[in-house]
Amino acid sequence: MKSLHRVGYALGICTTIFLGACSSTPMDASSVNASAAAGTATTASPAMAAVTSSPAAKSPLAPHADPASLLFQKRSVYFDFEQSNVKAEYTPLLEMHGKYLAANPGLAVRVEGNTDEQGGAEYNLALGQKRAAAVVAALKIYGARDAQLEAVSWGEEKPKATGHDEAAYQMNRRADLAYPAK
C-alpha cells in the first residue's frame, strides 16, 4: 500500500513539472506594439513578421480584411475524419492569428466548426463544436482572450465543397476563423 502512495505521489510531481514546463505567458498588446515600433521581431514566425513588420501600410485595410494579407488568406484549419484535434501543421497559422488578436484586443473572431455530410445531424453539430473549441483553445495559447473568441458549429450546413467523395469531405472537415466584416 505504501508503494502505491509513492507511485501516486511521484506521478503527481511528474505531472506538475510537465504541465509547468508546457505553460507559456501570453504577451500583452503593449509589448507587441512596442517591439514592432522598435523594429524588432516579436516572434520567430515569418508569417507573423509579415503581418506586423510593415511600418508603411501597403493597404488601407486592416490585415484581417486585406485580401493580400496572410491573415485574410489563411483562415481554415482542416481535420481528419471524425477528429477534433488540431494537427501540428496548423501551429504557425494559429500562432499568427492568436498573436494578432493579442495585439488587437478590440477585435473578435468567430471560430466556425464544420463537418462533412457523413454522420447524423446531431453528431455533426457536436463534432463541429469540438473542432471550433480546439481552435479557440489553440488561439488562447498565443494570447487571444476569451472575450475575443466565440466557438460555433455549423455541422454539415456550410460545406466548402459540394461533392460526395473523399476530396470534398476533406475540404468540409474544418474550422474557419471569421473576423468581423469591417
From TrEMBL:
<keyword id="KW-0564">Palmitate</keyword>
<dbReference type="InterPro" id="IPR006664">
    <property type="entry name" value="OMP_bac"/>
</dbReference>
<protein>
    <recommendedName>
        <fullName>Peptidoglycan-associated lipoprotein</fullName>
    </recommendedName>
</protein>
<comment type="function">
    <text>Part of the Tol-Pal system, which plays a role in outer membrane invagination during cell division and is important for maintaining outer membrane integrity.</text>
</comment>
<dbReference type="InterPro" id="IPR050330">
    <property type="entry name" value="Bact_OuterMem_StrucFunc"/>
</dbReference>
<keyword id="KW-0732">Signal</keyword>
<keyword id="KW-0131">Cell cycle</keyword>
<feature type="domain" description="OmpA-like">
    <location>
        <begin position="66"/>
        <end position="182"/>
    </location>
</feature>
<keyword id="KW-0132">Cell division</keyword>
<dbReference type="InterPro" id="IPR006665">
    <property type="entry name" value="OmpA-like"/>
</dbReference>
<comment type="subunit">
    <text>The Tol-Pal system is composed of five core proteins: the inner membrane proteins TolA, TolQ and TolR, the periplasmic protein TolB and the outer membrane protein Pal. They form a network linking the inner and outer membranes and the peptidoglycan layer.</text>
</comment>
<keyword id="KW-0449">Lipoprotein</keyword>
<dbReference type="GO" id="GO:0051301">
    <property type="term" value="P:cell division"/>
</dbReference>
<keyword id="KW-0472">Membrane</keyword>
<dbReference type="GO" id="GO:0009279">
    <property type="term" value="C:cell outer membrane"/>
</dbReference>
<keyword id="KW-0998">Cell outer membrane</keyword>
<dbReference type="InterPro" id="IPR036737">
    <property type="entry name" value="OmpA-like_sf"/>
</dbReference>
<comment type="similarity">
    <text>Belongs to the Pal lipoprotein family.</text>
</comment>
<dbReference type="InterPro" id="IPR039001">
    <property type="entry name" value="Pal"/>
</dbReference>
<dbReference type="Pfam" id="PF00691">
    <property type="entry name" value="OmpA"/>
</dbReference>
